TrEMBL record:
Pfam family, one: CRR42-like
Domain of life: Bacteria
InterPro entries: CRR42-like
UniProt cross-references to NCBIfam families, sorted A to Z: RegSipA
Species for this entry: Chamaesiphon polymorphus CCALA 037
Name listed for the protein in its UniProt record: DUF3148 domain-containing protein
Length: 73
């Protein structure tokens, strides 16, 4: 059931993690309320541990692929 994602792909949040980790060089934990289900972002990088850096309007966060899906064009 794993999807293949590409850098530059637009994704949509389908579930919120218990916390958000920023995609900064020194990551910080943030509350999940900074995003909402349905928010769209762009994948900017793949990180170790099955995490993806996704750029949203507010900031970039590291998310596992179970929390988002590809946006159909």
């Amino acid at each position: 059931m794993s999807q293949e994602f590409n850098i530059g792909a637009t994704v949509r949040i389908v579930a919120l993690p218990p916390y958000l980790k920023t995609a900064d060089p020194m990551p910080m934990l943030r509350p999940p309320t900074l995003l909402e289900i349905g928010a769209q972002g762009i994948i900017t990088d793949r990180k170790p541990g099955n995490y993806w850096a996704v750029k949203f309007d507010r900031s970039s966060f590291l998310l596992e692929d179970r929390y988002f899906e590809l946006v159909s064009i």
